[in-house]
Write a structure and sequence with these properties.
There is one protein chain. This protein has about 325 residues and is an alpha/beta fold. The chain has helices spanning about 10-25, 85-100, 110-120, 130-145, 150-165, 185-200, 215-220, 225-250, 255-265, 270-285, 300-315; strands at about 35-40, 45-55, 70-80, 105, 125-130. A five-stranded mixed β-sheet has the order 3-2-1-4-5. The chain is globular and about 65 Å long.
Amino acid sequence: LPLACPTWSTGRLWLLRLGYYKLTRPKCQADDWVWIVDHTLQIGTDKCLVILGIRLSDLPPAGQCVRHEEVEPLALYPVTRSNGQIVYQQLEDTLEKTGVPREIISDHGADVWSGVKQFCQAHSETCAVYDIKHKTAAVLKHELEQDTAWHTFTQQAAQTKSQLQQTALAPLTPPQQRSKARYMNVDVLIRWGQAILALLDHPPEGTGVTFDRVKVQAKLGWLTEYRQWLGEWNELLQCVTAVESFVKQQGLYHGAHNQLAEQLPPAQTERARRVRTELLSFVAEQEAEARVNERLLGSSEVIESVLGKLKRVEHQ
């Protein structure tokens, strides 16, 4: 078009100005703020403590998750090192912006959790909530960490990935396994295993997508040995996913664990019953922090998403 067009740097400069304005502009003083707290990954020698905020009165209706545009950047503290005392002081410094918050939600990283506990001891009106996604990951880790079948399954999946890359069977390659936070992403590996079993049992016909059946059997036939295990792991996954979805969308309030129990699928195995019971107990413990007719935020997913955006920007 024969029109003047600003460069990409102009757009980014205005985004930075807008972000700086949102970070530094005066905030409403209120007693129902929720602080969502986390550290960025190391950026050079530094990392940042990020505090996003949303008021309980501004939470989206039950059934919806918190979105980026609904949270307010409250603080950004660059540090070269961090511990509980440093985090506590950073939280105290943020008080002048919003007043004492009603809730602080975090992933219970060691230094953040230590600082949050100190802060809650100093301000009894503030409650600390553990992010549901990190809790379910901890429960899965406890169940799978000592599971020999799970370890051999992941090892064989990793070996299969290296064997199938850049071959005709590349579309069937297992997903990349994380070295960190691996128990927060077991779902993609379990679903891959079940999808390949379905392919082995019922090769697609008339879809235009064909694979050499002999090669598929040779490279991926080992999965049939894990059919029972995959079913058991998938049951754990269904329970965990249902709990996460409920807490993210409904929040924490009196009676939440009873409503959640009605929605959870029935457990067929002993370990699924154990996970179900533990997660229901966790939700009951967390909902006890809520006052009568109050709904607390139960997920810090929004800050994880924001920091994910930061990672993508860094790659550029």
